[in-house]
Fold this sequence. Notes:
heterodimer, B: mainly alpha
Amino acid sequence: MTPVQEIITIAVMVLGTMATRFLPFLLISAKKPTPRFIRYLGVMLPSAAMGLLVIYSYKDVSLLSGTHGIPEMIATLVVIVLHLWKRQMLLSVAGGTVLYMLLVQFVL
Amino acid sequence: MSPTHPRTRALRAAFPYTIPILTGFVFLGIAYGYYMTAEGFHAIYPIAVSLTVYAGSMEFLAVGILKEAFDPLRVLLLTLMINARHLFYGISMLDKYRAAGRKKFFLIYGMADETFSVNCAADIPPDVDKGWFFLWVTLLNYCYWQFGTAAGALLGSVIHINTEGLSFVLTALFVVLFIEQWLKEKTHHSALLGLFATLACLLVFGGENFILPAMFVILAGLTLFKAPLNKAGDSA
Lengths: 108, 236
């Protein structure tokens, strides 16, 4: 990307983010109830979006070459176990990331 | 000025609520700033993105997006999808923030997940001005994130350690957020739809082109199965 394209891309991210924050205040009357389909999406969409993000973050992992995704699998398991055990976001994220860095730099 | 100015009193009430976020935002902000500079961006990039976009997951994704080909429409759709949850924060805060007068603009601009959760759930004492309380929570959290990002970005441009594998911080963050979401919900249909529809699209369309089809399949799935999913959610 050229610098101008980068600025446009960041501006689009600001626009998209702020649209999601401001639209309810601009569109919805405080007096009328929220449409049912919107409420339904509000309940359902966050989980699906999180699932999408998880897969998105693995998109460059190759199972057929390199380390065959083994460091990713080990580190992900550790993140899950740490988080279910202690439920401390910082510990789970830091623990998994440090382990992954050690694995790809020194072990595999 | 008397020490019990409404502004001061609201700050005293608001600050304790933000302490967990202080730790979290500074740590994650440092990770973000360091990660983006380690990926070859000048320190000004993470700082500028944090000041303007101010949405954690999106900022981490920006690192990859800014390295890909220029495609503003795809970026807009991805941003709307990732941040769609804010729509529902806004819906929940309609009345509370409308009463805040001129502070409203910044309250909405700075409505990150953590800020929403505090302002939505906090038990504000009756002698504390609600508008000022909301503003302090929003402003403090915003500052924590900016501080973390700037510290990480500057560290990243000064200290060069072997950062191979640091990008896993993003994966770990999303896995943790996914688990948090999973533990909160009664049924997991939507979470599983998100995982497997996206995985299927990744396998079919490949790493460069799978996001839009995945978003389409998720929205179509949620729309088509609205009746049974609604039912399952109610009866669980």
